[in-house]
Amino acid sequence: MVRNKIGREIPERYAKQYGVFEGAWARKPNYKRAAAKVSTIYPGESKLLSSIREAIEKTGLKDGMTISFHHHFREGDYVMNLVMDEIDKMGVKNLSIAPSSIANIHEPLIDYIKKGVVTNITSSGLRDKLGSEISKGLMENPVVIRSHGGRARAIESGDIHIDVAFLGAPSSDEYGNANGSHGNAICGSLGYARIDAKYADKVVIITDNLVPYPNTPISIPQTDVDYIVVIDSIGDPNGIAKGATRFTKNPKELLIAKYANQVIVNSPYFKDGFSFQTGSGGSALAVARYLKEDMIKKNVKASFALGGITQQMVELLDEGLVEKLLDVQSFDREAGQSIKENENHYEIDAAMYASPASKSPVVSKLDVVILSALELDTDFNVNVIVGSDGMIRGASGGHSDTAAASKMSIIVTPLIRGRISTILDKVNTVVTPGESVDVVVTEVGICINPLRQDLIEHFKDLPIPQYTIQELKNKAYEIAGTPDPIEYDDKIVALIEYRDGSLIDVVRKVKE
Amino acid sequence: MKALTIQKQAIAGTIESSDVQIIIDQNPGKGIEIELKSSLEKQYGRRIREVIEETLANLGVKEAKLVVEDRGALDCTIKARTIAVVHRSAGITENYDWEGIEAWNV
Q1: How many CB atoms sit inside 10 A of residue A347's CB?
Q2: Disulfide-capable partner of B92 in A7, A111, A266, B87 (CB 3.0 to 4.6 Å)?
Q3: Judging by DSSP bridges, how do beta strands A274-278 and A382-383 pair with one another?
Q4: ipTM score here?
Q5: What is the pLDDT at residue A486?
Q6: Is A214 exposed, middle or buried (0-12, 13-18, 19+ CB in 10 A)?
Q7: Would A46-242 and A243-488 be classified into the same CATH topology?
């Protein structure tokens, strides 16, 4: 075992292969970018194929290759299941899949893993059933969990080489110019898919909306696309919009949001031209509403809002409170509509969003980010991937990317969920290291990371109760009792890659 | 306080979140048996059993079979539901021995 900088034990073989986490800024990339293999298509040749099966055959997909998908359709995605079903029927085995993330709807993957069709997975996250099965030891090889920026880095640097990308697109022309904002099943931004299109050897666009040439706006350009397949339906619009929750009425979440907003508007960063990102959870969305009131009252406008974009962000743009939206993923239909209609709502790809190996990602220009947590420990390490029962159920997302690069990262979390304390001596799994976390906001008060003495000094007169992280933990334990730790076996079921490619943690098999 | 005896099947609590439902019955010659279902079995199963057993001991119950369905109840809730279900099973519906209970329920 090798202990990394935050004391997590990484088995020797993986430590050797990936290197271990040595600090958020310990690896400064200096490298030559990977590139895709290209076969040119001559004038007069057609890229249109009649079926997914024909596309799989034409791409030359073979045992042992790596294929990818994007997760812009979230719970409404039909594409991954349709393609995997065809691949299974063709008898291809031993594939690595590298989707940008995996949703509940992709539960059929469990069977493809059992049959040996899929033997390796890298993803931002895993949801309920697949996550539990993998936590119970379904796969021989550990799943590699990567952040959104980390995945882009891995593709740019060649750590992930995609042989074939199957990319669902709400609209495409016969040469593969595609976007996500026109069509029946719109998803707005295609930010994650654009990286796959650029770096995969073979790129197949799968659409249910073939439009006359040339299709604009162009998110994925024809220069990157080999084949186009038209199918009846690529996704369910209702499932696609499931990315964001509606405005919360839960008084606890509202109080947390109110405190978080007070932290933002009283911070040194809240001034004309500031920038921010909020997540899509209950408290995070509520922060946006309170923030809006204060921006109007104090006449402060933001230069941009980043990230997964929701209806709340679109309202701020429409009302002139935010100059621009930089959108890697549109969480709801309103965001998808806005990206189509408003030129200040701009699509960016995953590397531009957050890759630590791009020449500079947008997260580096971010002032404030609001993030959630499943668990947080007294070293401020955050877990967003493993549930309190030890089962993988969440996603890394842009958590570690934005927390590291922003000027002030705020974690909003209730002190207790049900009977589970969110603040622990030691989180089950670390996704974001404590050094990247600046302020923790709960319903009983806030806690500022002692690494940020400047913020402690700045907020000393803030009219919100302030505690040390130890005090917050004690408060939670007094109410809920001290939980027994989850017991794990030695088998490694997932590797948690930090955004720079080193291992920040591993997930072990839960003891039955 | 005077020891209570389990006389008939009784139920207390609900299966709402943060509550616990306890069904109790006689268990002649077999001591205390607890059948627990909880989504928090791994983290709090041991503690839930401990609270129920302590409360039963304080009530003087030595034999009982319990079916417990936990929905993330805190210790205070588990204790309250245990006290209630034992009283119902013992047929006590008035003149509770509050002072007796307060002697150990702090």
Answers
A1: 23
A2: B87
A3: unpaired
A4: 0.88
A5: 93
A6: exposed
A7: yes
